[in-house]
Design goal:
The protein is of the alpha/beta class and 369 residues long. It has a domain of 158 residues. Helix content is 46%, strand content 15%. Helix 2 links the parallel strand 2 and strand 3. Helix 9 packs parallel to helix 12 and helix 13 packs parallel to helix 15. It is globular. The termini are far apart.
Amino acid sequence: MKRIAILGSTGSIGTNALEVIKSHPDEFRVTALSGYSNVRLLDRQVRAFRPQLVSSGDDPAALRRICTDRRVDHVLIAISGAAALDPLLWAIDAGKEISLANKESLVMAGPLVMARAESRGVKIIPIDSEQSAIWQCLDKQDRKAVKRIYLTASGGPFRGMPPARMRDISVPDALKHPRWKMGTKITIDSATLMNKGLEVIEAMHLFGVPCARIKIIVHPESVIHSMVEFIDGSVMAQLSATDMRIPIQYALSYPVRIPSSLSSVDFVKTGALHFEEPDMDAFPCLGLALRAARTGGTMPAVMNAANDAAVEAFCGRRIAFVEIPVVIRRVMEAHRVKARPDLDDIRGADAWARKKASQTLGKAKTWIC
């Protein structure tokens, strides 16, 4: 029986993970839970699962204890944003098995995180449906045989919308994802396609593949979660229903598969599958993320922090949807990249970018909605 700690148990990934664990009481036990501000839900989870360790808020000491406690076998990290970086490093240093639903930590410090994980012999198992699909396609495959990774995207709620209409997009509009029910930040990132750019950087580090060999394709049905093409011309794809409990269960049970009562794909009802190129003109956030991926160094951390600030401003009705990439671009253009940063450099770049984004937003009085 695996003893599981869930960091971010009150979010969408955390609550789905608890459903998976509840369905498999002989396989998993909840040893620790941490939540941020939803104390009522955390209290209900504690009463239902009786963990030995509980943390609320963002107390670093409590999170560190959870990540390093000997009673924990597996740490599931579902904390959003840059706040996940330190817990990820603590869990790696403690030699825990890790499943990761946070992409920002790898966007910010992917080379440093993966090098540390390799030195400790720690596997980082991705939970996001696209990264889980790639992980499954690559399992036990020779990485030298990989020709290309196809990272699929639903296209978000504004796929096909003329750019001229995007200025009027409201926050409720942007939160209506056509396929997935997710938290606010990731849903807005999916609407701008920034999320797909973040996933490219994440995949680069998780799988050791350069940006040039990762291709984004829009797949509106979201049945194929990603694909891997090999040098012999073969393509392997992972398909499943759009239910986050499927990749969560595999991450928790890896390297074995256990039975599930979750929905299967009905190929007859699904019908035709469609694919198209992403519209880089309509969704400039994607191009900015790819620029950060190619630049490397501290630029991905800066891009990520600027995006955080811009999304927060949009959700606060201070800027329009189309002005999210404007903020990000201005911060990126002002940054002097450090090519080989250490963790202090990464944290410094993150803090600088957040301050710069705040200054940029403060000067742009005409953006206030």
